[in-house]
Design brief:
Layout lengths: L4 H5 L6 H10 L13 E6 L3 H12 L4 E5 L5 H6 L1 H22 L12 H15 L5 H7 L3 E4 L2 E5 L2 E4 L2 E10 L3 E3 L27 E5 L3 H12 L3 E5 L11 H13 L3 E3 L2 E9 L2 E8 L2 E7 L1 E4 L3 E3 L13 E2 L2 E2 L12 E3 L10 H16 L13 E3 L4 E6 L2 H7 L3 E7 L4 H6 L5 E7 L5 E8 L2 H14 L3 H4 L11 H14 L2 H13 L2
Parallel strand pairs: 1-2, 1-6, 2-3, 6-18, 8-9, 8-14, 9-10
Antiparallel strand pairs: 4-5, 5-6, 7-15, 11-12, 12-13, 16-17, 19-20, 20-23, 21-22, 22-23
Helix pairs in contact: 2-6, 3-10, 5-6, 5-8
């Protein structure tokens, strides 16, 4: 069958690692199977949401078809979580070598690192992981009919793949999202990088300009500055990481600036153009217009759902600019079709797609009534320090006012943070006023993404902060800040009246 050329073009260079990747996630010699008369479930899109849905349904005995027009594994494997974290790990190690000399009196660092080798390591790791998401595993081990090609709804209960009709009882749309170019003059005429192409670099950028101060922009900005590039982040808003706690975002901003990232906020980008020295960006900031010229331009300013070319109208499926419209059970306007993951959710995270997939199998095939609104979904930005959050959003805290009590524990109160020299940051937990019910929390610290899971688990189980504080944490660990927060909550219960009562008790006992 013919390949979609865009899927091949996004994977560069075509070295041994990337050829191995493609052999798994879009095999050149793949032949689509003969379709069954009717499938219990047809899944359109083989990113995280689609893969998990198909794997669970097939394991339960359902007849499942999985359709992918580009690369199986979706963004997470190919142009997201896996390659970015591989690069972040290398960048962290490079920075650690510098810190060993500057902060911990270790041997001095000499010479320049090998950027090309860092990128090759990333490609190797990605290829090593790819069989898990690959077409052959889903066909041979899981029993899924894998169709590589363009899938399009042609009726309320049917999808066509390159002219082959697949009839279904239920279907799941899991086509994900893609990087979106902001409406800036000239940006469509400039060779920009996005998360879909930045991992194809083999030479280090001299100067990387990043449009967008969200999680992707911040993570890659820090990674590239640690790997030796000059980096400038440009954002139209008043601060980076606008959906996170403002104090936590400022901790991250301070860390980025300290390592050499130039951050320009409240900066309106008027135009972008190619120039002899690279990409020239005209920016208006504080009433003044300046030009910034960089060798490379990375656009990390939003995502667009993949709804085009799916024939949604033919199936009676409503959608809008932000994605496929779904109810709280992730069901579309066609009661036989569900939509999950980035194409239908405001939580555009791999773990959110995974959770929705597990829920949608029950809802679609077993009359389940799981609600996406009941899912407690954390998130983490993997800068150093990491910024993790779960539950009630910062703006919701402000709106709730006195109905929310907040406790903040600075990381410099953690002995482990002191010994590690990582005292910047804090743990902040929001409680329902008058109780220890956890409504949400933010942690900005090293390994915050690991530690926040304990709060997420407590919220999922309905465990309050007081009970969480009864957990015995190994000493010294950074996770002790959770117990310290519980101790602070317990001290709040010790009111003047309670203190007087205890005083009377002990005086009575002599």
């Amino acid at each position: 069958m013919a390949h979609d050329p865009t899927s091949i073009a996004a994977v560069q260079p075509l070295d041994a690692h990337n050829r191995r990747l493609l052999e798994n996630v879009h095999p050149p010699a793949w032949s689509n199977p003969e379709p069954k008369d009717r499938y219990h479930l047809v899944v359109v899109g083989a990113g995280t949401a689609g893969l998990v849905t198909a794997a669970i349904a097939a394991a339960l005995g359902a007849k499942v078809a999985l359709i992918e027009r580009e690369l199986m594994g979706g963004d997470c494997l190919n142009v997201g979580c896996v390659p970015s974290k591989a690069i972040l790990a290398a960048a962290r190690a490079w920075q650690g070598a510098r810190d060993a000399a500057e902060r911990y009196h270790g041997p001095a660092v000499s010479g320049d690192g090998d950027f090309a080798a860092v990128m090759e390591r990333m490609r190797r790791i990605r290829a090593d992981i790819s069989p898990v998401d690959g077409a052959r595993r889903f066909r041979d081990e899981l029993g899924v009919d894998v169709f590589l090609g363009d899938g399009r709804f042609v009726a309320e209960d049917a999808v066509e793949v390159d002219g082959t009709r697949l009839r279904f009882h239920r279907a799941v749309i899991a086509t994900g999202a893609r990087a979106a170019l902001p409406p800036i003059e000239g940006i469509d005429r400039v060779a920009c990088l996005t998360n879909e192409t930045v991992f194809s670099l083999t030479e280090r950028p001299e100067h990387l300009a990043v449009i967008g101060g969200g999680p992707i922009g911040c993570e890659l900005a820090q990674a590239f500055v640690r790997l030796g590039a000059r980096v400038t982040v440009i954002d139209a808003g008043p601060r980076i990481l606008p959906h996170d706690d403002a104090d936590a975002a400022e901790v991250v901003a301070t860390a980025l600036r300290r390592e050499g990232v130039e951050i320009l906020t409240d900066a309106r980008i008027d135009s972008v153009r190619e120039s002899g020295a690279g990409k020239t960006i005209r920016v208006t900031r504080g009433g003044e217009s300046v030009e910034i010229t960089a060798s490379h331009l990375l656009v990390a300013a939003g995502r667009a759902p993949n709804v085009e070319g799916l024939g949604l109208e033919e199936a009676g499926i409503e959608y809008e600019k932000k994605g496929v419209a779904v109810d709280e059970r992730m069901r579309t306007s066609n009661p036989h079709v569900y939509a999950i993951g980035d194409v239908a959710s405001r939580f555009q995270f791999t773990h959110a797609a995974d959770a929705q997939a597990r829920m949608v199998v029950r809802n679609a095939l077993f009359f389940g009534r799981g609600k996406a609104t009941d899912l407690i979904i954390p998130w983490c930005t993997y800068t150093s320090p990491e910024l993790a959050h779960v539950g009630i959003a910062p703006d919701e805290v402000r709106e709730a006012g006195e109905e929310v009590e907040t406790i903040t524990i600075p990381m410099h109160e953690s002995d482990r943070a002191k010994t590690d020299g990582t005292t910047e940051g804090f743990f902040r937990v929001h409680l329902k006023a008058g109780s220890d019910t956890i409504l949400g929390a933010t942690l900005v610290a090293e390994h915050a993404g690991e530690i926040i899971s304990q709060v997420t688990q407590a919220m999922t189980a309905g465990t309050g902060l007081g009970k969480l504080g009864e957990t015995i944490f190994p000493y010294p660990t950074s996770a002790e800040v959770l117990r310290k927060a519980a101790d602070a909550w317990n001290r709040r219960k010790l009111t003047p009246t309670a203190k007087r009562a205890f005083g009377l008790f002990f005086r009575a006992r002599g």
